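Hello again,

I reread your note about wanting to compare the complex against the isolated chains. To keep things tidy I'm splitting this into two emails, and this first one only covers the full assembly. Below are the input lines as submitted, including protein chains and any nucleic acid or small-molecule components. They are followed by the predicted structure of everything together. The single-chain runs will come separately.
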Amino acid sequence: MTKDQLTTQSPEDIRLQKYRCSLISSGGAMVLFSLWTVLRSLVQIDAQLNYRGNSEALMPLVTTIVVVGIIDLVLKLYVGLSARLEGLARGKKRPYLVLGIIIAGISLLSLVFILLELPTDIRMYGVLTPIITLVVEITVLYAAMDLVISATKMRRLEEEMGRVY
Amino acid sequence: MQLDFHYYATYCAAYLAGYSHEDSLKVCYSAQFPDNCTRTFLAGGKAPVSAATTQSALEMADADTDPVGLQDITRIWASFHFLPYDLKADVKKGGKLYRNKYRLICNPNGELLKETIHLVKGKGLEAAGMAMHILADTWAHRYFAGTPSLVINSTNYYFYEILKQNGEWTERPVNFKHTPGENIEKCAYINSLDSDSEISVMNLGHGRAGHLPDYSFIRYKFMPAWKDHGIIYKDNPEDYYHAFCQMIYAMKHLRGEIPVFETGKYATDVTKPYEDEILWIINKRQLDACLDWKAFGEKLSGKEIPDFDIDLFRREYVIASADEKDNTGLGRFILAALAHKSMITNRIYRSGSLLAGYSTEYDGKDVGIKDYLKLIGLRKKGAGK
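Full-complex prediction:
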């Protein structure tokens, strides 16, 4: 490579860097949200224990929360870390885009569900937890959409520039 | 830049500009001094602390980041180490605060450099040395601002060294760390801690780029926050050579050989016979080039260049009587530093920014912030006589 090739930047390069930065940020956000999932699951289990006491429905409900929580955690961690690595142009490219779309879809459904259940949840958990959950879910949706859009645009631009790796 | 360039290379430049060995020593001592003249140092010699030209790591750790504290930091760093290039720069994005910070970005050959040289002309060797520090730093510290700012000074994952290996130009990622010990071969350098706070001192100047701007041999590319995903290629060998040639040109002007100082002019005719040697020193991959510059300087003058002694100025100042203090080396340096700091503060204030604080004018002559009583006192004393 010549020094000029290494040190000059075309407008496409600038756009590419913008998408990369965006991917790194939304990937980082996804990793953080995976930790939020753990926290939220613990709060939900605690609330169920207090609300349902020794009810027969408790065990299946807690099991469901744990299983869903683990799946959510692994999914977001995988997608977030993979997106960050692609943004940093490090490591092998992983098939995380479809999973990112799935997270966005689930997040959208969750959002609708949270809104519908908001009055009940406020009665059950108090005002703070449902509102925080709502705000976080909106942010998850935004981050997931940003991740998918950035990754798609970045890949398309890389193809146009002949830099697919 | 560090001791190797501010002290030894400035000695070489001063000697090539026509100063005698003794005068070159005074110039280079004063050129290094802005990196040592902290409040703690001045207080130790009972000198006016508002003349501080730098802040030690301890002082930085103790510095307040309220608006007044930030103004103090900005006055020091923007005046002596990150001279703003264009205080009228048009910025297409952000609000007034962003615009004001953007305008503090340092670059060579700005209007303020002209004013700096103009201000020190006829003020002695100490003032000339101080100006050489400021001039040289405009090359080394370009693209960073002398104010704590995340949106201007922060860098990100995109940081590569550009180097020639086996005859081919190549790039390799810079590994920044926060523990002592830099390694050129492993491309491992120290930088300041990552901080998301806009006003953290971690985001002051080139802290996030580590000492890379201070090493003459290195070439690198990075993505500063203000560039909107654009990259900057920094060619230190080229910039350092320009700095060296411009110092000679500026000192020739200060000596009266060149009537008007113009930006963008370099004394390449003077350096031509030594170009290979100078470029060899600048390009040599080493963290400290003191020995090479010292050898070059001693070869030029045939005289020994003593090591930099931080207490040389202070000893003379401490033993001088109250009336004589202003005529000592440190006394003259302090007056030059106060005048320069006042001028820069005033220019920043006049550009519509309070980042360096308020500026007052006294008798239409002295400019600066209100605590520069020393200058006002001198003016009164002069008028009384």
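For quick reference: The interface with chain A takes residues 156-158, 162, 168-171, 221, 223, 228-231, 233 of chain B (CB under 8 Å).

B.
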